[in-house]
Amino acid sequence: MNLKNSSVGIFADGTVGAQIVSFLLDADPKNISFICIIEKDGNPVWDVLQLKSFNADKIIFHKDLSSEKMQSLKVDVGFLCWWPYIVKEDTLSIAERFVVNTHPSYLPFCRGKDPNFWAIAHQEPFGVTLHTVNLKIDAGDILAQREIPVTWQDNGKTLYEQSLKEMVSLFKKTYFPIINGELTPKKQPDGGSFHYRKELEAASEIDLDKTYSGRELLNLLRARTFKPHPAAWFEDGGKRYNVTVEITEDD
User: Fold this and answer.
1) What is the pTM of this model?
2) How far is C-alpha 244 from the chain's CA centre?
3) Within this chain, do residues 126 and 232 fall inside the same structural domain, yes or no?
4) Are residues 238 and 170 in the same domain?
5) Whole-number Å distance between alpha carbons of 99 and 141
6) 95 with 164, same domain?
7) I want to staple 179 with a disulfide (CB 3.0 to 4.6 A). Which of 6, 67, 144, 159 is the partner?
8) pLDDT tens digits for range 78-109
9) Strands 8-12, 75-81: parallel, antiparallel or unpaired by DSSP?
10) Residues 182 and 223 reside in one and the same domain
C-alpha cells in the first residue's frame, strides 16, 4: 500500500514537539493540514512556526478546539507530538486512518506517567514508542519502538533526556513509512505495567525500618534523582529528608 500525499494533522508541545515540527516543515510541508499548539509565550513550537514562516491560517490553539472545530479538521493521519492532554473521541475522529502518539516508554511497559522512574525502580525495559491511539491510555497498537539500554550510571533525569533524543530520532526515521502505509500497527504484547502520577510520591518514600537489598535501594534513589524535581525521601524525628545519588564507573 502506498499512501503518498497523505494529509497530516499535528498536535505538538515541548522540545520534542518543536523538533518534530521543525523536521516536518522542512521534509513534508505540503501535506501538513494544521498544527495545534497550546500557547504562544515561551512555547518552542510557536518559535519554530514563526522561524519557518508557517501559514498562520493552519495554526490552531488548544483553547479554540470545540467539537465543531474538531469536526472540520479531517486528515489521513494525526500525530500527538509530546502532547500533554488525554485525547477524547472527537480528536480521534479527525483521522481517516489513525492518530499516532509519541510515548516515552517501551510499551507495554511503563504505560501512563513517569516511565523514566518506574523503569529504574522496577527494573523494567525502557525506550520510546510510536503507537496508534484509542480511548485507553497508551494501549494502542505499536507502529515503531526503540529500546534504550539502562546502565548503573543512569538516573531519572538521564533516561528522560535520552527519551527526548530517541523519540525525535525514531519519528524522523519512521514518519514517511507511517504515512505511506509501509508500517503495519501491531497489537501490544500482553503484560507490561501501568502507573498513575499519584503513585509517584508514595513510591519514592524510603522506609527506615524496611529491609532493602542494595540493588533495590540504589535503584529507588537514582530513579528519583532528577534535579530540580523532588527526590526520594524519608521522615525521621518529625522532619523530612531528601536523598539523591550519583553513581560513577571506576576507571
Assistant:
1) 0.93
2) 24
3) no
4) no
5) 11
6) yes
7) 6
8) 999 999 998 888 889 999 999 999 999 999 99
9) parallel
10) no
Residue at which a domain ends, from 173, 194, 215: 194
In a domain, 190, yes or no: yes
Domain residues for the domain of 238 are 201-243
Tell me the one-letter amino acid at 59. I
pLDDT (average), residues 40-68: 93
pLDDT digits (tens, 9 = 90+) for 101-152: 999 999 999 999 999 999 999 999 999 999 999 999 999 999 999 999 999 9
Shared domain for 188 and 213, answered yes or no, is no
Whether 248 is in a domain gets the answer no
C-alpha cell at 12: 505538538
Q: Do 216 and 186 share a structural domain?
A: no
pLDDT surpassing 80 at residue 17: yes
Question: What is the percent of the chain with per-residue pLDDT over 70, rounded to a whole number?
Answer: 98
Q: How would residue 197 be classed by pLDDT, with cut points 50, 70 and 90? A: very high
What pLDDT, on the 0 to 100 scale, is given for residue 183?
Answer: 95
Is the residue at 250 inside a domain?
A: no
Counting other chains too, the contacts that 147-151 makes at CB distance below 8 Å and 24 or more residues apart are: 147/106, 148/106, 150/119, 150/120, 150/126
